Amino acid sequence: MKATNGMKATNGMPATDLALDSVTLTAGARHLVKDVTLTARPGETIGLVGPNGSGKSSLLRAVYRVLRPDTGQVLVDGTNAWSLPVRQLARTVAAVVQEPGADVDLTVREVVAMGRTPHKRLLDGDTPEDAELIESALRSADATHLAARPFDRLSGGERQRVLIARALAQQPSLLVLDEPTNHLDIRHRLAILGTLRRLPATVLVALHDLNLAAYYCDRLYVLHDGEITASGPPAEVLTAPLLARVYGVTAEVAIHPRTGAPQVTFVPGEPLPDRDGGPGVSPHRV
């Protein structure tokens, strides 16, 4: 677990304390997220896991202030995020989303440099410190060799690394990421999550890969049908009965002898365990 006492983000700001207090989000008559309470202590890496449509992305959008909660609050260092000035929020929170928007006619370096915008006044140019931070972010995302290339000519994985570099250049004290390993090969998945893990910032990340979540996250929150169904350290949360109930699959969970983290192995076609871990009904073939 990352140290949290006295932890400072690289911009000199303390790592952020995040709390979601009974947050409910709706779309018409449908609940996207219902009565979710979640905490991320300064410097922690917190993972959101759950099947497609469980509410992970919606919950993250409430944190980086795209979806306003119908009820409940998102508290950033004890202050309602929706009451913070836009500029202050941009200096505190950086987001890496699944759908970054339309193509832009910029080079990779220019895209990453956009991360410095919240720290500048209108018409300010880049300082030597900005240039150093941009280069550091490019190195951390293994994107230095892409710096002069047009962003809209990159592959999906290359774009993802550049957007992560932009977020790193922003130097947030709270980093929110929605499936940041999408499109990445195995080497870059491990490298990016390792970089996030070492940040002094608080990190809230949605992940589909349970083994990566188990290794890199301090605590997990499991979302199912818009509600938190389990939370805690990965070794306590990732159990065969929970995976059967939430994902509808049979799995074996063991502690990896070298990493010490839970390792999930899926067993297609096996009967689902019941809630107590015994044999149960046969699943659909997967």
UniProtKB/TrEMBL annotation:
Residues 18-250 form the ABC transporter domain. SMART domains: AAA. Transmembrane segments: none annotated. One of its GO terms (molecular function) is ATP hydrolysis activity. This is ABC transporter ATP-binding protein. Residues 262-286 are annotated as: Disordered. Keywords: ATP-binding, Nucleotide-binding, Transport. It holds the Pfam family ABC_tran. The keyword Transport applies.
